[in-house]
Amino acid sequence: MYGGLYVLSDLQDGRYILSETYDGRYILSDLCDGRYVVSDMHDGRKILSDLYDIRCIRSGLHDRKFIFSNLHDGKYVLSDLYDGLYVFSDLYDGLYVFSDLHYGRYVLIDMYDGRDMYDRRFILSDLYDRWYILNDLHDGRYILRDQHDGRYVLNDLNDGRYVLSDLYDERYVLIDLHYGRYISELYYGRHILNDLHDGRNILRDLYDGRHRYDGKNVLSDLCDGRYILSDLYDGRYILIDLQYELYVVSDLYEGRCVLIDLHDGRYALSDLYDGRYILSDLYYGRDLYDGRYVLSDLYDGRYILSDMYDGGYILSDLYDGRYILSDLYDGRYILNDLHDGRYILSDLYDGQCTF
């Protein structure tokens, strides 16, 4: 790399190889499933890091980042389409190619169901600048387009079963009735997931960013045993119709993120007036001295670390009671177990990794 802007260290098994092409693109070979962060440097070059498998990635950039998720099997290429959207296709040689992207935050979703490559689509959206909205549904034929007047129109490019038009400002919702994996983008950067499959799980975002306590605001079902409610402004929220599943609630007021496990009713969530949370009756995890922040244990051995009021962070090792890590920057972090007794802390915003 030039200018010392990129540092890649401790790559596992040599699986991650970053090289520069003459047209300004970067190629990484043999990527595994997981979520990735692409950081755009000041000279327009980019770096791709796997938040799960690369042990430590550090970048000198402190500007906007690019986020990719759900890469399927290591055989896709990101290319620029004529209309400014992006799509993944298969090169059949195990390479990922990322073309020059504009500034912004991007999410890529692959919901491939085992059919032939030509029968699906991978749509990329810019979540920060609100240029595009993605949703890779069952048939992969859905695109939400900006009409350049503040309104959006959703068209089903296959058979016209799902059509939404003239969606204004904060009320953009993308809905499908089949698989329950959906994403929508609101005008001010808030995201709503909707699952109307059984008529129970509906999340509505009000004009002022608050949520009513009338039973209509519940977490949406992602059809994989998880529920998610994300990118909300500060305020009070309520969880209704809680089933025997895992729920994730994220309040971006100060980058806090907490996980509650409602499998047997042992976990409860409270939202204080200043945006802080309390998790009570925890079976796993450890409350801090004032009961405000907690580290929760996911069912698969991974952990979510919430940030403290004063900007400091404490990581609790549930096996031997040790505490490590402090004074991290504001943001949302995910702690991943690398299955060898070591852990990696990933900042989803800054792309920083800390042991």
UniProtKB/TrEMBL annotation:
Designated name of the protein: Uncharacterized protein
